[in-house]
Amino acid sequence: MKCAARHSKKPLPSAKQWRFSTSATVFRNQPGPLLSGEDQLPAGIQLLFLIKVFYCRWIKFEEKVEDGGERWSKPHVTTLPLHSLFELRTCIRKGAVLLNLEAHNFKQIVEKVIEIQIEKQAFKPELLKKLTYVLLLKPYHHATKSQLKLLFEMGVSPCLKNRFKKKIPAGTEVANILVGEVSFLEKPFIAFVRLQNSVLLGNLTEVAFPSRFLFILLGPRARLKAYHEIGRAMATLLTDELFQRIVWKAKDTEDLVAGIDEFLDELTVLPPGKWDPTTRICPPKSLPSPQKRYLTEKRCRWRQIPHANGNKSAVDDRQAHGHQFISEELEKTGRLFGGLLKDIQRKAPWYASDFSDGLSLQCLSAILYIYLATVTNAITFGGMLGDATDNMQGVLESFLGTAFAGAFFCLFAGQPLTILSSTGPVLVFERLLFSFSKDHSLDYLEFRLWIGLWVAFFGLILVATEASYLVQYFTRFTEEGFCALISFIFIYDAVKKMLSLVEHYPVNWEYKISDITLYSCTCNLTETGNSSVLNQTLFPNLSSFEQQSDVEWSNWSLLTKDQCMQLGGHLVGNSCNYVPDITFMSFILFLGTLFCAMALKTFKSSRYFPTGVRKLVGDFSIILAILIFCGIDAALGLETPKLLVPNTFQPTNPKRDWLVFPFGANPWWIYLVSSVPAILVIILIFMDQQITAVILNRKEYKLQKGAGFHLDFLCVSLLMIVTSFMGLPWYVSATVISLAHMDSLKKESTTNAPGEQPKFLGIREQRVTGLMVFILTGLSVFLAPVLKFIPMPVLYGIFFYMGISALSSIQFMERLQLLLMPAKHQPDFIYLRHVPLCQVHLYTFIQIFCLAVLWLIKSTAAAIIFPLMVRQGMSESAQDLFLCIEKLLLSIAFYLYLYNP
């Protein structure tokens, strides 16, 4: 009879997600004195001192007790002699198999197992006491703590002493493997037990988890090594996910044997002369899922279907490699505001948890990190808006708009992890609109107000007609192109601003040490009255004659730069404008912050310090990097450029008010003509917002609370009304800062088996971090005395880091690196298994070409059409509108491969 799991077409459902902590116990016979005290040895073994020692343990990978018995080995992949698996198969067939045994403690289990063996006449009745005594010996667990810590823990409960329990996930059950040799047996004593209900077995287990399975193997002497390998084979099987399913559903011995055969079918054998068996194989970073291993028939169909083109259902994991499936958020209802109502119904049950889930220390780190990025971004765009609009919109308007728009969006949007910001295309439009208004004698703010009202009106129409469902046609090509360009812009701007420091703080490249006598800087006081004031200030105790005689030398030798400026003088000399070390120090701060942030972020996966410390440092990596280099800057005392925040609450341009009146300044026909540029703006806003929303709601982020494309766009449309009336900048989702926000909120498993890589669990979805970021942004005017100590090069380094982090999340960078790698050194990416390398390179070159075109467009006044260039085509249907160019590019890349397999 074969196991049902072997032939079923469906994967075996497991009642629970079971994980096994398996430990192997070895009985060692050592010559020694008789046991003293009340313990009495059964007859026949009085010359042996039996020690029940735990030798190995498995959570997911094997750990052995090192020589000396004071520490466990590094977790490693189990390597078994092939013969041990065949011997284990024989043991299962010949031994006692007790399935669904009812027992409440280890003593009852041992008694029932021995009784059944004796009833089958496998052993003589007189061995009952000896077997019972041996199996019930108190186990010896290896101590892995210092003597001082053990001294402090004297008298503490064994369960409290065991810190190892924290590494094991809740719900874990233990499988105990007891193997050894004794002198009174002539043939092996073998038993496999599955309990009806898991029970705590006291000191038998190293951790206080209930046990479900036991495997006992006691045999004659001289074969301890063989017994040990059989025990390791059983432990390896019990930690295999597929065998766990089989052993849970097994009804008899044949089912267990079939499970071992299933394991042997997948076994890989290494030749003994090609590797060192003593080498411990490190655990891999990722493992195939049990579902992929089990579905053998589907794997065969995958091999039969060339490249799985044309049929989306042919490959289960195609969606995981960039294909955007149609989720419920993008289903069209056919009713006015139907999608919006579904978004509200979907997000409303989560609203309370959006605030309770933000009560985490990780959220504090995210708040500080994104706040500094948002403040710097607001200052940058505010300054550029001020230059483009004659300060009709400046830094203070940027701060106020960012705070209000961001807080409103985080409170009511469908995806509160999104960070709003001004964008490059919007800045270009503002510059063009201001120039047009100035050339035609129009009031810029009123003209802009009506454009904003039309944009909001068109936005409401798009929300009502569920236009957001079109984002389902955005694929990897579009997402990567958009994300890569924005990331490169962040990197480029950070470097550009650092290079601009050379103009403000010049470096004396032609300095020669021999010309030091030629450099001078003196204070020139053109008015004689200043000399008198100077002498009275510096030498009040001297007589008038002495002050007059000293005036010549005191003017030049004793005045500092500040005193010279205060007394109305000016500096004269070829070294007066030289500022030592500012530029080089700024680059040290810039690069130091960048590399420090990267190093601290990866510190979480290092080997140093306990897991809790590494996690804390990783979560606060950006803040720590900023604080470290702010401290270095303060300690050195150089006048590096600092973060300057407005400290007064008034419009940047005194000619304007906080509210824009919609009538009177422009002709009446402007109110209607404004709809024409509003069409261009609404397309820009729609594409910019929705492409970012698609990137943030990718399946690989494992978001649990769903998206809200229609609700998000409604919030953006309503904000257009408010910001237009107040003369504040227009806001849309910022791709790079939003990705940085999500990256700072990643959740990883905390209970990982030794050797197991932390698993990505998803994003901490909540509204607290975004809300607090924008509240702090609004309060930045009052925090100016503190923020002025932050050097701008430090913040530029964070901008550079954000660009690199966003690039690392897209597959385009992986394929870009493949261009520089020989084929034999390339990583084992899934797409390289099914697509020829030349076609992969061709696809990458097409993306590079498109990015180059977009970059050229961005550098000109045509940057306003950037989102349109990402997605543009001409066709009759809406789907063809979004797919035309992409399908053309993909057909060029894969034509030969698809039609000539």
Automatic annotation (TrEMBL):
Name a GO CC annotation attached to this entry: apical part of cell
Please give the Pfam families that the UniProt record associates with this protein.
Band_3_cyto, HCO3_cotransp
Topology class, membrane: Multi-pass membrane protein
Enumerate the spans annotated as Bicarbonate transporter-like transmembrane domain: 335-870
Q: Does the keyword Cell cycle apply?
A: no
**Tagged with keyword Transmembrane:** yes
Q: Where are the transmembrane segments?
A: 366-386, 398-427, 447-465, 477-495, 582-600, 620-638, 668-687, 708-732, 768-787, 794-813, 842-869, 881-899
Q: Recorded GO terms, molecular function?
A: sodium,bicarbonate:chloride antiporter activity; sodium:bicarbonate symporter activity
Sorted alphabetically, which keywords does the UniProt record give? Cell membrane, Ion transport, Membrane, Transmembrane, Transmembrane helix, Transport
What residues does the Band 3 cytoplasmic domain cover? 56-148, 161-277
Which InterPro entries does its entry note? Band3_cytoplasmic_dom, HCO3_transpt-like_TM_dom, HCO3_transpt_euk, Na/HCO3_transpt, PTrfase/Anion_transptr
**What biological-process terms (Gene Ontology) are attached?**
regulation of intracellular pH; saliva secretion
Q: Which residues form a coiled coil?
A: none
Intracellular or extracellular location(s): Basolateral cell membrane; Membrane
In the record, the note on similarity to other proteins reads: Belongs to the anion exchanger (TC 2.A.31) family.
* Record-given protein name: Anion exchange protein
Record the organism.
Answer: Naja naja
Taxonomic path: Eukaryota, Metazoa, Chordata, Craniata, Vertebrata
